[in-house]
Amino acid sequence: MTRYESIGGSYSQTRKPDARITRRIIELLDLPAGSTVADIGAGTGNYSRELQHAGYHMVCVEPSSVMRAQAPLQPQLRWIDASAESIP
Fold first, then answer.
1. Model's pTM, two decimal places?
2. Mean pLDDT of all residues in the chain?
3. What own/partner pairs with CB < 8 Å and gap ≥ 24 does 7-10 have?
4. Cβ atoms within 10 A of the Cβ of 18, count?
5. CA angle 87, 24, 70 (to 5 degrees)
6. What average pLDDT does range 26-50 have in this prediction?
7. Euclidean distance between CA atoms 61 and 14, whole angstroms
8. CA 19, CA 47: separation in Å to the nearest integer?
9. pLDDT tens for residues 47-71?
10. What gap in Å lies between CA 18 and CA 32, rounded to an integer?
């Protein structure tokens, strides 16, 4: 069991995206809206959802089934069950 599988059960209750971090990510990406972005280690998808709302197409890569299970269903987010080392 990974660390995130053991702490993941309540992760989305205590972790929320920070608007300052979201703005900084968008600034650093420096990509036009409509671009596809991969969130490696997406967790519950907090920041993926924020970036999707900003106009990006998101691919969420997360190996922990516990973390993925907490992600609200959003058809705009594509999820891949993988770690960074094994991205298909």
1. 0.80
2. 87
3. 8/44, 8/64, 8/66, 8/67, 8/70, 9/66
4. 12
5. 50
6. 95
7. 21
8. 9
9. 999 999 999 999 999 999 988 988 8
10. 21
Determine the Cα–Cα distance for residues 38 and 80; give it in Å rounded to an integer.
10
Residue type, 78: R
Torsion from C-alpha of 53, 84, 87, 27, nearest 10 degrees: 30
Two structure tokens written together for 16: 């929320």
Q: What confidence score (pLDDT) does residue 62 get?
A: 94
5 pLDDT above the threshold of 80? no
**Helix (H), strand (E), coil (C) string for the chain:** CCHHHHHHHHHHHHCCCCHHHHHHHHHHHCCCCCCEEEEECCCCCHHHHHHHHCCCEEEEECCCHHHHHHCCCCCCEEEECCCHHHCC
